[in-house]
Amino acid sequence: MKCQVLFDWLSFSVLSTDDPQKVITDILKLDADIFDELGYGRNGYRNCLHYDHISVYYNGREGTEKNGGGNEFMGVCVSMSGSGCRTYEQLGGNVLDLAIDVYRTDGVNLTRLDVACDDKDGAFDMDELIRYYNEKRIRSGCRKRQIVQCNDGEYAPARTIYIGSRKSDLCFRFYDKAKEHFDPKDDPDGYNSHWIRVEMQARHEVAENIIQHIYTGLLESRSIGESVAEILGGHIQMIELDDSNISRCSISRWWLDFLETVKGVKVTAKEEKEHIFERKLRWFYNSIVPLASALVSGIGERNMLELMQMGYTRRSKAQDTMLKTYKGFGIHDLGEKVSKKIMHRLYEQWKRRIGLTDCGLLDDVPLPA
Fold first, then answer.
1. Beta strand 170-176 with 54-60: parallel, antiparallel or unpaired?
2. Which of 107, 249, 270, 323 has a Cα-to-Cα distance from 297 of 20 to 30 A?
3. Helix boundaries (H) for 162-288
């Protein structure tokens, strides 16, 4: 497929309740127990429940004399970054369905929506876009324009073009996603591959208008790609300088061809993202393995095994969910009861192998409180 469409940010505020757990269970349709309390908030909220880039803010500050007083009810705010959207999909959710539910629910306000179009097959030419930018051949109602290039001199530069202010209610980004996603030293082929992202960042009423247009299109049997292409083409045109009046200049063929590839997208994509289990495993390998080796040398293999067995009984709901949603985990599909049996069997086999007969291994080992 030449192009993919996905949602890369979703934020909304729920004004009908101040209970974050109710929002998690009733709107996100997730288990509230997997979220951890961070102990701090942002944007006027004192507290936050968080799970792998999905943040649920609550306990908003009331007005004070310094900021004009008042007692505005802030409700609960949910913010899912691009990584949070991918986490939500790994947990079985659908970001488009969630955005539509938010739009259709009274007392819930959509505050930010990012829609991305990914080209990995050469339909979009970044060099051509930069040439059009330099020649002032981009027609748009968004007046502010900016090009950013990051180059350390050793690798091909990462380039981004902004159409519209990043602080406004509508902004477009065109950038080399491959050069953002891949490390040039670890994966030079990925870094130099063709992966261009065209992204719309919308806030407040503009975000609601976009999801309304997409939702209406689905009801009228238009594909997700057709609706997104209409929005893109309606706000930005790459033009030929064939008329003295820029509003009458014709649209360039290559831009129309790209929009046609977007129109061909039937459903939203689920971009591959490194699972939280894999990130934890890499962190453990890089940061904890040396310490674990020292601990084994200090307390012995048998005591370390006992610690592992104790840790199994103290796992959090979030850690259990991490295992259940990780497809690479060998016993994922066997269920928790079978998982416990396998863990117990391995534990007993290890005890027999090392000649262990009792379980009081840690009596003489100081443990943290």
1. unpaired
2. 323
3. 177-181, 188-191, 204-219, 224-235, 253-263, 276-283
Per residue in 223-273, pLDDT tens? 999 999 999 999 999 999 999 999 999 999 999 999 999 998 887 766 666
Contacts of 141 (CB under 8 A, 6+ apart): 235
Q: Compute the CA torsion angle 167, 146, 188, 2 (nearest 10 deg).
A: 80
Quote the CA–CA distance of 211 and 225 in Å, as a whole number.
13
Instruction: Please tell me the distance from the alpha carbon of residue 309 to that of residue 296, in angstroms, as a whole number.
Output: 15
How, if at all, do strands 158-163 and 170-176 pair?
A: antiparallel
Would you state the pLDDT for residue 61? 73
Average pLDDT over residues 306-332: 65
User: DSSP of 92-133, one letter per residue?
Assistant: T--HHHHHHHHHHSTTEEEEEEEEEEEE-SS-S-HHHHHHHH
Are 238 and 138 spatial neighbours (Cβ–Cβ below 8 Å)?
yes
- Pairing relation of β-strands 45-51 and 145-150? unpaired
Check whether 367 has a pLDDT greater than 70.
no
Q: Are 98 and 28 in contact (CB under 8 A)?
A: yes
